[in-house]
Amino acid sequence: MPDIPSSRLPGFHRLDVEARWRELARRGDVSPEELHVLRALGSPSFEILNQMIENAVGVFALPLGLGLNLTVNGRDHLVPMAVEEPSVVAAVSYAAKVVRHAGGFTADADASMMIAQVQLTGYGSPELARERLLAHREQLLALANSFHPALQRRGGGAREVQVRILPAPEGPQGEPLFIVHLLVDTQEAMGANLLNTMAEGVAPLIEQLTGGRVYVRILSNLADQRLARASCRIPLAALADFDLPGEDIAEGILQASRFAEADPYRAATHNKGVMNGIDAVAIATGQDWRAIEAGAHAYACRTGRYGPLSRWTLEQGHLVGRIELPLALGMVGGPIKVHPGAQLGLKLLRVTTVRELAMVFASVGLAQNFAAVRALGSVGIQKGHMALHARCVAVTAGARGLDVEKVARLLVERGSVKVETAREILASCQAVTAP
Ligand code: NDP
Description:
With 435 residues, the chain is an alpha+beta fold.
């Protein structure tokens, strides 16, 4: 395996954008051609836009930042993050740095097993229909695989047929729902289109075998056969900050974790923090982030009660964080080979397989969560957040160029990060510089 450059880039945040580009090129993170792609990301050709969606009229650009310091299973990764919210990139980089000094993240991910669903109605006896279908398991799998022979040649394909009979939502008078699951190994693809083709393809045989009528045929975004997990283990001393001892910070994090376990109102916000990181890297690598979001929140509710995707405990003098969530990602398919930014994002990440990609995503989610609960359980998030938000406030108030940083700094110093205050500061700066 070739040597991977470190994800530690001290002082990177202080460079201007031209200097950051030069640094990435010097380190070999991007080739000269990729540097050209990076510079042109905000203006892809109309041809590409038209290939991606209908009625394209322009580009809605988001800033692309790099999360630094991440190490997962001993390998370093620069994390491309497309996100409009200030502090997300800084938080991930900070958390990854703390965890890096404690040995980095440990992660693993399941094979790319996805679920296609076929809804059958008018089947008569559910037990008999189930028996008939399962008796023809091989025929169903062979038919499903016939729609994607290349997937089988790559080592993937349809693997299992399952039947789920669910109570009718309208009560005992309704027909129980008869749902056929097709489990498919999609290899390096997210697999939505692959699965949908298979689900539609096997539907006529399911009707023929049962005498029923098929309606809905589509993948499930609750990809709970395709989980990724990450963990980290941080010595308490390494947590000391804000003039607080590590024990105190750890206690705040443990309390935040308990809060999220006990209260869905808190768990939703806890998980939003996790997804801040995961969505940003998903967008930057061309993933279907709506699918990831849907899967994550459905998984968070798997016990019948919405809960946190990550948890924090104290183990032998260490703060231990663990996260587990479904991650249906792709290294191929969808827009990944079409959008030059997605290709570049994957290149920057330096992952070679979709499972490795999922491990990095899970680690990013845990890093983001660590940064949030660390601040929440101690000094609060507004201190760091408002400092970064101040730049947006300054721009909203009309500041441009060098004035943006100046106004933002004064907003923070005054402890009033408000547009009105920014206007006052701007007006007084302009009055001073007026001839
Ligand atoms: P594609 O339809 O692009 O399929 C992936 C293709 O990649 C395969 O058919 C295969 O084609 C090719 N391929 C090349 N190498 C590999 C490999 N090593 N492993 C697997 N496939 C390989 O994408 P997906 O099926 O992944 O679908 C993802 C898209 O579907 C996303 O854009 C998503 O937004 C969208 N979608 C999502 C839905 C949802 O989540 N509910 C619903 C509908 C669509 P070949 O064998 O011909 O080379």
